Amino acid sequence: MAWEEKYGGIWCLALRDGERVLSERFLPEHDLITLVVNRADGNLCASVLSRGHDPQWRLPFWSEADIPVLVATLADAERYFEAWLGEHRPTSVPGR
What we know:
Layout: E1 4-6, E2 9-11, E3 20-27, E4 32-38, E5 44-52, E6 61-64, E7 69-71, H1 74-88
Antiparallel strand pairs: 1-2, 3-4, 4-5, 5-6, 5-7
């Protein structure tokens, strides 16, 4: 996948052969993205992405906020995201 501007940041999701995005949700109140990828081996990989700033780029990059986890179902992924948000208690986006 090529780089593109998405949700106010640079998005470069590299999927391997046989992988596809099952769920992608932007959470503007937390400035995060939740992402679930169906891997080629049938497992699901759940990730939370946050924007990271690099001084040489005008836009921030979306990157993993924590280590991705393997889950069995989309419901498991949602439970993981809820627990992650509860543990990290992100605040609202500054200036909004």
